[in-house]
Fold each of these.
Amino acid sequence: MTGPDGRDDKTLGAGGEVGAGGEIGAGGEVGAGGKPAETAATPAPRLLTHRADPLPLPPALHDAEVVASLHLRWAQLAAAGQGAPPLGAGDADDGPGVGRSGVRAKVRARVVAAARADAAADRGLIGDLIRAVDAVAARVDEVTARVGNLELLVQEVLDRSSEDLVRVQAALGGLDDRVRDEQA
Amino acid sequence: MDGGGAGSDVSEPRIAVLSRSWAEAQRSESAEAVRSIAGALSRLAPVDVFVPGEGATFGDGAFDVTPIGGAHAPRARYGAVVVEAGRRGDGELARSAGSLAAGAPVLAVGGARFTVDGVLDVGPGDAGTGSWTVTGGGGGGGPAPAVHHVGLYARVHPDALSRRHYGLREIPDYLLVLGDRPGMPATPTPSDRTRWLLARFARQHVVVLEGGVARAWRSRSCVAQFDVHTRMDLWILMARARGVVDLLPGDVYARECVEALRFGVPIVVPGGSAADGLASAAGGMRFTSTAELLSCAEALGDPATRAALASSGREAADRWYGDPHAFVTRLAGPLGLAVPVDGGPR
C-alpha cells in the first residue's frame, strides 16, 4: 500500500486488520531518508536455492513394520510346521508291503520324502531371504545415518565458511568501503 | 459548529488537528502518531479533526472528521493547532493551520515545514532520553528553542509475549529483521544488507519480514515462509525475537522500534534514523555501516548485553511511549494547555 509520500507499508501486507484486543492492524509508514543506494563494490553474498538444513532422518528400516512382520510370519510358519503331523502319518497302520495298500504306502512314502526335501529347501531359501533382507535393511540404515552425518557436516562447513568469509570481508574493510560509497 | 466541528465560542478552547494521513493513509506511521496526539489532546479540550478534500463531516472513532476544502473551510479560532502533512508538506493545510492558529501554538508533526510563526516541531531526535520531543518557542535571534520531552503513546498488546506464531514451527530462537525495501513487492531474495546478515549468521535462524511476508533463513537458505497479516502477528514475532534489526525505521517515530522495546527486545537501527535517539539512549545499538551492523547483531548474541539492553530499553520505551496519562500531561506543557483534574472533556 502506498502512502501519501509515495512510500509503502513497511512490514505488513495490504490486508491489515484489527488485531486481538482491538489493536489496529498493520503497518508503518516507511521512513527515514529513503533507501540507501546499494552499490556493488563488494557484492552481497548469494543465497542457496535449496534448503541446506537436513530434514529429519527416516526411521530405521531394520525396525520397520515390513521387516518385523516378515520375521513374525516366518516364526509362525515354522512353529506350525513343527507341530503338524508328518505327511502320510494317517496311513501308518496300513503296514508296509501289504497288497495294494502296501504299494500305495511306498509311493506315499516316496512322495513324503520328496516333499520333505522340497520343504526343507524352501525353508532354507526363505531363511536366507529373510537374512538377506535383514542385511540390506541394516546396510540401508547405516547408509542413511552416514548421509545424515554428511548433511550435518555439509551444513556446518557451509555455515562456518560463510561466517568466516564475511568476517574476513569485514576485517579487510570491504564492507566499510561499500558503506562509504553509499554515504558518498 | 461553523464550518467543521468547531464553534465560534472562544470561551471554551478547542483544538484543531489537520492531517493528511488521517484519512488517506490510515495505517501509516504518521496517521498513528497524529491519532495518538489527538487522543491525548482530547483529554485537554474538544478536538476537531480536518483532512484535505471536500465532502461532509464523517465520524471516525471518537472524532468527527471534516474535509477542509470547499464550503467546509473552518472559520473558527483555536487554542492550539496540530498539523501533519507528510514530508512534502501541504500548502492547503499550512494555510489552514495558519489561519486557524492566529497566534496559538502550532504543533507540526512528522517534519512538515510551515511558514507559521511560533511553530513547534514534534518528532524524534533526543539521544539523551529517547523521547519524542517538541521543539520550538525560541529562535529568531533569541534564545535557543526550548525542547520538551513529550514522548508519545504507542500501544502494544501484552498477550503477544505469551503467544507463539504458527509460522515459526520448531524455530526456537531467531533474529528478526525488518526489511529496507518498502516500495518493492515481496520477493524471495532479500536486500543486500539482509544477505550480509544471513551470511554472517548462517548458524542462526534469521526471520526477515518484508511486504507482509516473513521468511525464516538458516544456513543461507529459506526454511520457512508465512504471511504476517495483522499488527498482532508482528508483535508476536517481535516479542519472541532475540533482537529486532530495523534496516529502515519509520521516519515519524520509528513505530516498530518503539514497539519492540516495549516488549523488552533490543533494537539495531541505522544511525541518523528516527530510532537513533531511542537506540542510543537505551535499549539498542546503531550502525553506520554494514560492518557495524554485523557487529551490533553479533553483540545481541551475548546474553548479558541483551539483558541489559532489554531492561533499559523497556524502561525507556514504557516511560516515554507507554504511559498515556503522562503523555497528556507532557503534551499540555508546550501547548500552554491546562490539564483538567477530572480527566478532561472526553
Amino acid sequence: MKSYFLSDQNLSAFVEGLMSKYPVIAPVAKRSRFVFEKLVDASELRLDYDTTILPPKKVFFPAKQDLIHFDQHGFTCCIDPTEQVLLGAHPHDIKGIAMSDIFYSDRHCDNNYMANRKATTIIGSSVQNHYKHAFFGTMNAERPLTGHDLFMTAIEGGFAVDVVTERGEALLPLGTFEPATEAQVAAAVEVNRKAEEDCPEKLNGTAEEIREKVRTSFKSPVWEAFAEKCFSCGSCNIVCCTCYCFDVQDEWNVDGVSGSRFRLWDACLTREFSEVTSPGGSENFREERGERYRHRFMRKAAYLNEQLGGPACTGCGRCSGACTANIANPTTVINKLLEQ
Amino acid sequence: MAKVKCAWFDFTCCEGCQIELTNFGEPFVDLLEHIEPVEFREAMSEKTTGPIDVAFIEGSFSREADRRRLEQIRERAAVVVAYGSCATSGGVNALKNHTNDYTEEVYGADAKRPHLDSQKALPVSAAIKVDYNIPGCPIDKAEFIRVVEQLVHGTAKVYIPSYPVCVECKRRETVCRYDDGDHCLGPIALAGCGAPCPADGIPCEACRGMVKEPNEAAMELVLKENGNLPERWAKDKSRMFTANIRGDA
Amino acid sequence: MSCSCTTETESLFLPQVAEIIDAKMITATEKHFTLKLQNGERFDYAPGQIVEAGLFGYGEVPLGLASSPTNGTSFDLVVRVLGKVTKALVGLEKGDVMTIRGPLGNGFPVEEFTGKDVLIVAGGIGLCPVRSMIEYILHHRDDFGRFTLFFGAKTPSDLLFEEDLEAWRCESCMHYMDTVDTPDAAWKGNVGVITTLFEKTEEITPDTRVIICGPPIMYKFVIAELDKLGVARSNIYVDLERRMKCGVGKCGHCQINDKYVCMDGPVFRYSDIQTLEEAI
C-alpha cells in the first residue's frame, strides 16, 4: 500500500482542490454537535470531530428518498447519482458503510442506494477525539476496513495518507503530497491502534460470545427491565449506521394527478413498525415495548450475523447518546447479559 | 371541474391557524385553482348561509351556546375538518379544565354575564361528527395542503404518523434539545409536523398531542434528570397541549 | 460492494402495469381480480409466490397469487378491504390498471409434494394464496397422491370462490371439507373451528405433505393436530403473512429472526422455523 504525507498547511488546498471538482461532504460543527454536510468553505471542515449526529449512510440513502415520480402519463424511477466525495469518515463508520453495502446488494441489488454509493469516493480519517459513548475498540475491531478509497491519519505536523484504491489515488493530484517516511507510517499505525484502545466504553465479550449470549437471552427479564423507561421513540434506530429499514409512502401533488413514491427511514422501536392492518383494526407482531426493545438488540447482535459475518454494530455509540432515557447503550445492556 | 366551496369557522381560539393559512404564499395560491373560499374571517368580509363542500373549524368547543352553531355548520357541510390543536383536542384552552374557576375573582359582579358562561374546553368532535383532524399549534402548512388536496381530488387518505417527534428530529439531524442542556417533550409527542421547533432551538411542547401509549412516567423522569426541571414542572409540563389527552385527563 | 446488477439504473421499486380483465366482489369485502400484463408478456411465477400490487398515490400491498401459473397468461389476485391501498384497489374495475412488482418470494416447493398425499388447511382469506397450489395440483392431478382440502371461515358468507367450492365439493379427485364458526339458517355443513375437521376424516396419513395458511392464531392448533397424527414437522409448510413494504428483503418490516418473509418465505418448512420466536 502506498502512503503519503499531507502537511497541515497543505490540507486546505487539498480540500479546496476536491471541492473544485466534486461536492465534498464532510464533518462540520452544528451547535454542540457535528454533522456531515456539503462543504461550502474548506475552513468549515472539522476532522477533529468526535462523532456526527447521523452516520454517513445519509449520503447514499437520504432520510427521505424519492423512488418513483408519477403523473397521468406514466411513471419514472428517480436514480440520478452525482459523483461526490465523502471526506472524514471514521474507521468504524466506514465499516458501517461496508455493512450497508452488503444489506443493499445482497440477493436483490437496490440501485436506489447502490448508484449513490458507487458515485461516492470515500476518504476516511482517524479518530482524533472520542465520542463519550464510543466502544468501537471492542466491537467489530477485527473486521477488515474496506470500502474506502483513501485514509488519512492525523500524525505530527499533518496526515499520513494511505492509498487504498486507484480511485483514491486519482485524487492525489488535487493536493500536495510527499511520500511518507517509515516513521510516519509507523506513527499512523500507532495512532489508529491507540484510538481503539482508548475507547471510553468497552464490551466484555467477543462477537461470538455476544451472539450466543444475546440469542439465548430471548426470555431474559433484562429486556423488560430496561424497556420500562423506553419511549419507543426510535432515536436509537434513526442514528444507527447499520439500521437500514424504511417505510414507503405515496404522496400526491396539489394537482391531484401527479406525485411521488418515496422511502423514509423507519424505526423498529416504534409501535407502527410491526403493525399490520387486519379486519377490525390492526395486529401487532411486537405489541409490547419490551419486545421491540429486544428486537433491536437481537437484530444487531444475532439475527444479521450470518449475513454480515459479524454483529451489525460498529461501536460508534450514537444510539447511547441519542437515547434520552439512557437505556440504549449496548455496552451496558450486553455486559449485563454477559454477567448472567 | 367546479371549484370546491370551502368555509372557515372559528370557535374558542386565537385564530392563529387562519393567520398561518394567510401566510402560506405560493402553495395556497396554487390551491385556489381548486377551491373557492366562501367564508374566511381573517381574509374576507363575505359570509355565507348556503351549503358548503368543506368546513374548516378552528377552536375548541367550550361553550354550550356554541353547540347549535356547530350543528348548523355540520348540516351545511359535506365534510367537516377540525384543524389546529384547539379544535382537535381542546388545545391550550383545555388547561382550564384542570384549574380552579376564578371568574368571580376576576369579573366580580359581571361574572354572571352570558358571554363568560363557559364549560370544559373540548374538541369539536365532542359536539359534532368530524371527518378529518389536522392537529398542531399552529397547523403544519404542508400537511394542511395534503389534506385539502385529498379532499378536493378524492385521493388517498393522508398519512399521519403515529410515532414521536424524535423520529423527525433525528431524520433532519437536529441537535437534541437535551444535548443543548434543554428539555423537550419530543419522545412522547406525536410527529407529523416535521419537527420545526427543536430545529429552531425550541423544545417540543407536544402541540399535536401524544403518541399511542406514551411513556409518561419515563418522560417525567427524563424532564427531571436530563432536563433539570423541578418535580412539579416535570409532572405538569406536558399539560399545555395535552390536558385532555394525558393519563390524568 | 458485491453487486451483480447489469443495469445500474434499474430500480427494484419500478413496477409493471397489469390490466384488469375481470373483476368481481366475492364477499362483502373481497374482490377477485383476473389480470394480465399490459405489455403482453406472460407473468411467470410459481404457486405460493407473492406480488406487491399497487396504485400510484396510494401505495402497494403484498398479495399472494391466487391462481396457478398453469392458467395461461392471466393471473388472479384477491384484495380484501383493510386500509387505504386495498380500499383504492377494490374500487378498480375491468379495464382499469394496477401496478405489479414480482413475483416475489419462494413459493411452494412443488417437488416435495410430488407423488405424495397432500393436505391443504386454509382459514379465511388464507385460501387465496393456496388456491395457486390447489389449481396447480388439479392441473397436474396424476403427479400427486390423495388430495384433501380443509377450509374454515367465520360464517357462510365469508366462504370465498363460491364457484370453485361447488366444483371442489363434487370433484372426485379431491376431498374437500369445510366448516364455519358461526352458521346461518341455511347452513347445513360442519360447524366449529377448522381443527374439528380432523376428527371427521381418517385420510390423513403420517406421510402426508401439509400446507397451512390462515389467521395467525390458527397455525399452532392445526400443527398440534398434525403432531397427533404423526405428520413430521419437516413435511409441514406454513405460508406466513407480514407487512412487507419492499418485498425484496430490504425494508425490514417482515423480518423474523434472520429470515425475511418476503424473500425467504412466505412459505417456510415448519421444522425450519419452529424454534424462531415471533414466527408463529
